């Protein structure tokens, strides 16, 4: 039986560890919960099945924080490429993922792709954000490093070793509902407002207002519940890079920030309480169309 269509969603959340070889995909050091879609049932492969198409979706590699709060001593100059940009470790992670994709789809018993890049076989799509574009470039450098000199890239001493230029397609963020979950959508914005003014979210805020006031005092910025993610993100990334942390970031505060960030994000995307299927479809459904 031939598989006419296979949708493979490969979401990578990979953290950087210096002692890993370039061909190893760097695993997350902490458990990351996987939320299985409701009603989803995995199809079991049968003898004689043949893979004809694979759609692989992955996130960007390790990045700098997208910003910070007033009292944070680590400003933008602490990050060589600036706020929100892919780090060198993020580039390594994506290169390693590219090598994994090479092994799975090119250097396989029944390869799906040719050994070198073929424009009729591969289409690469990225959001219009620096870190995702650079992630795509880094990934493809690993996936298609076996190109032929003089055919896939110039036979020139000054040309980067084994680098085959591969086109990456994108759209402006405002015109990209597939890649940008916050692309303009009046109905989605209406539903989000209903969630934030609803009893469930307001109860969640009230139960944690004292902690929000504490965080606001320490950061020098009034922090409302949807912004807890930013504070958690800054602290989490800085800690990965062994940057000093303020005394008020105790173990208990760290856990509280992470938990509130996760719950707040579920409300934002309609997967909390209330569960809002329409919002889920509007924000993420276009990717699976």
UniProtKB/TrEMBL annotation:
Any one Pfam family match given in the protein's UniProt record, by short name = His_Phos_2
Q: Name the source organism.
A: Caenorhabditis tropicalis
Under the heading CDD domains, the entry gives: HP_HAP_like
The transmembrane residues are none
Q: Name one GO molecular function term.
A: phosphatase activity
Q: Which UniProt keywords apply?
A: Signal
Does this entry carry the keyword Nucleus?
A: no
| Protein name (database record) | Histidine acid phosphatase
Q: Which family does it belong to?
A: Belongs to the histidine acid phosphatase family.
Q: How far does the signal peptide extend, from start to end residue?
A: 1-16
Domain of life assignment:
Eukaryota
